[in-house]
Design goal:
alpha+beta; two-stranded antiparallel ribbon; 4 strands; about 35% helix
Length: about 120
């Protein structure tokens, strides 16, 4: 989760781009892991400008009305969640990270450990 108005969120983008590239280039992971951003309180136009400005390569959904944000407990952004799909509509949270991601290794370790 991020917001285009967040001053800390862009610090995560290079790491998230790198994680996205790593997963997309690994056949086993690509079939089982999806990386995407959710822009909290932002319009499509704001997100599109943000994608261009920061050269984001992972897909981004908008949560303009804060529906997903509220469903996750209204966390401060940036907020990273790793989930595993259990059934069509049920997911298990495997890892949560609040704030700036210091290293892609933290996230990849939690993904690779489970697949």
């Amino acid at each position: 989760l991020f917001s285009t108005y967040c001053m800390s969120c862009p610090k995560n983008y290079p790491i998230l781009n790198s994680i996205y590239n790593y997963i997309e280039s690994n056949k086993k992971l690509k079939d089982n892991v999806k990386v995407f951003g959710i822009a909290v309180g932002n319009t499509k136009n704001e997100v599109n400008e943000h994608i261009k400005k920061y050269k984001l390569i992972f897909p981004i959904l908008t949560d303009y009305q804060f529906i997903f944000h509220k469903a996750t407990g209204s966390p401060r952004v940036p907020f990273t969640i790793i989930c595993k799909k259990i059934t069509k509509n049920k997911f298990k949270i495997l890892y949560i990270h609040e704030g700036i991601i210091e290293s892609e290794d933290i996230i990849l370790k939690n993904i690779l450990h489970r697949f």
